[in-house]
Design a protein that fits this description.
single chain, 119 residues, alpha+beta, 3 strands, disordered C terminus
Length: 119
């Protein structure tokens, strides 16, 4: 079970009411998408009209990595995503304790793996 957080609906509900459209949003999650894609690096770039989030998986000892997923957002949606992530991190830390970040890591790269079989 997972929670879905909508800081502000993308769909204009008032407009939907005026058109007598049902206010329920049904979101389909296919089995393939539900499996998810692991990423240990995110590259964020932007222009005046969009934010691009590239999710990459870096494998230790392999000099080349591929973008596994790309999400393109409007600046407004990027800010809503930031707000939703902040809210969820706060709730997570209240339940599980502070998330620790090692500031000695090389920026943009996952932390080194200590030994065989560890992730």
């Amino acid at each position: 079970m997972f929670n879905v957080y909508f800081p502000k609906l993308i769909i204009n509900l008032a407009e939907m009411e005026n058109q007598n459209i049902d206010n329920q949003i049904q979101i389909e999650l296919t089995e393939e998408v539900a499996q998810g894609t692991y990423s240990n690096l995110a590259i964020i770039s932007h222009s005046s009209s969009e934010f691009i989030l590239d999710f990459v998986r870096i494998v230790p000892g392999v000099p080349k990595a591929k973008v596994k997923s790309r999400v393109i957002l409007t600046p407004e949606h990027a800010k809503r995503l930031l707000s939703a992530l902040n809210d969820n991190i706060e709730r997570f830390e209240k339940m599980n304790g502070k998330i620790k970040i090692n500031n000695n890591e090389v920026p943009g790269f996952p932390p080194p793996i200590g030994g065989m079989g560890q992730a």
